[in-house]
Amino acid sequence: MASCEKGSRSECSKERASHERMIHDDVKDYYGKKLQSSADLKTNACIAPAKPIPAFIRKALKDVHPDVTDRYYGCGLVVPECLEGCRILDLGCGSGRDVYMLSQLVGEKGHITGLDMTDKQLEVARKYVDHHAQKFGFSKPNTEFVQGYMEALEKAGLEGNSYDIIISNCVVNLSPDKTSVLREAFNVLKDGGELYFSDIYSSSRLPEEIKSHKVLWGECLGGALWWEDLVRLAAEVGFSPPRLVTASTITVDNKELESLLGDYKFVSATYRLFKIPKDSPRKGCQVMYNGDITGCEKSLEFDCHYTFKENEAVEVDGEVASILKQSRFAGEFSFQLDSQTSCCAPPKEISVNPFELEEKMKSGGTTSATGGCSGAQKSCCQ
Fold first, then answer.
1. Residue whose C-alpha is closest to residue 192's, from 103, 287, 87
2. Helix (H) or strand (E) holding 211
3. Contact 100, 132 (CB under 8 A)
4. Long-range contacts of 122-127 (CB under 8 A, 24+ apart)
5. 130: containing domain
6. CA distance 235 to 380
7. 239 and 293: one domain?
8. What is the distance between the alpha carbons of residues 13 and 17, in angstroms, rounded to a whole number?
9. Which of 332, 261, 344 minimizes the C-alpha distance to 291?
10. Is 254 in contact with 260 (CB distance < 8 Å)?
11. Does residue 111 share a domain with residue 65?
12. Which protein family is named in the record (predicted)?
């Protein structure tokens, strides 16, 4: 892309489009032909161990057909709270493991759309639609799979302002145009909607020799976003500041690839981004969780900084208060203006550096949510 600096705008656009097509083709080839199961991966990036999985999620995963699970390449656990009745979009759904797991949690009145660009993966996913509907006791499937690109959701036939939640599990790094991914996600989310996703992040911007390496890209490392760029891109698109949920170190365990990566470090991290209208008041207040989310009766781990315990008042800044009031969590909290909190108080400075969080977790300095509670989900989406 370096030659683009000297070319015209139209030449740059053509070169960029050609570059994106090449990456898409490489990813399709890698995940559609070269990888036949998770055992074929050359690093541990896409199968990084997550934190302990709650029992109800383990059960939901156990009920997914093994042919689907065998083609799973995710890097984290993408199960936000309060899913019953929600409309969810899974970006880069692959063979559909997370789609079928979540289809049980949203229930028959909810709906899950899985989007992927790889025909071979979608072929596996679509094969088991009726199987899972019958296994879960649904009168009809609550899942569908769409072929398309996460950089162009409208072209894939997805309507704007139509989803409560978007999830993504270790695929944003595979996109050559991450700005478009976030912008398209923002557009198809309803107001108050959430993008909840796990991905691979780098300790700094990666050089071209790493980004152009096909295996490193396919293994989710070459396209890893510098975590600070995520914060910048989220703001540019219109999302509220990212909320960091959890982070864990990536170990490559491949000497040849480790030598190419040098001193660059990687983590698997989960963030949640909310689409909150810009004109929503940002007033600090005290909030109290009512304990009504099934499975989270005692406490709700919202992110790595906030754990809301039942009937316990917690002071939050204007940004967090706005998120809770405008999202599907609104009915789960009571809100009271805190006389000690300025109505115009700016958001508190809270670190969203996943490398810093991972170090604190290693030293026992903090705990983190795993993405989910310990029981069935109560309806939050109407």
1. 87
2. helix 208-211
3. yes
4. 122/147, 124/67, 124/68, 124/71, 124/95, 124/96, 125/68, 125/93, 125/94, 125/95, 125/96, 125/99, 127/67
5. 2-274
6. 26
7. no
8. 6
9. 332
10. no
11. yes
12. Belongs to the methyltransferase superfamily. Arsenite methyltransferase family.
Going from the C-alpha of 193 to that of each of 77, 190, 340, the distances in angstroms are 19, 5, 30
| Predicted model pTM | 0.85
Q: Tell whether 372 is covered by a domain.
A: no
Same-domain check for residues 226 and 297: no
- Shared domain for 64 and 185, answered yes or no, is yes
- For 198-212, how does the pLDDT look when each residue is reduced to its tens digit (9 = 90+)? 999 999 999 999 999
Same domain, 314 and 187: no
Q: Are 26 and 66 members of one domain?
A: yes
Per-residue model confidence as pLDDT tens digits over 235-251: 999 999 999 999 998 88
Q: How many Cα atoms within 13 Å fall on the side-chain side of residue 250?
A: 32
Q: Which residue has the tokens 């691979």?
A: 200
The reply to whether 167 falls in a domain is yes
Report which residue type is found at 66.
Answer: P
Same domain as 338, residue 211: no
Q: In this predicted model, what pLDDT tens digit does every residue of 209-231 receive, in sequence order?
A: 999 998 898 888 999 999 999 99
Query: What is the domain-level CATH number for residue 310?
Result: 3.40.5.100
In a domain, 378, yes or no: no
End-to-end CA distance of the chain: 46
Poorest-pLDDT segment among 53-57, 266-270, 307-311 = 53-57
In a domain, 176, yes or no: yes
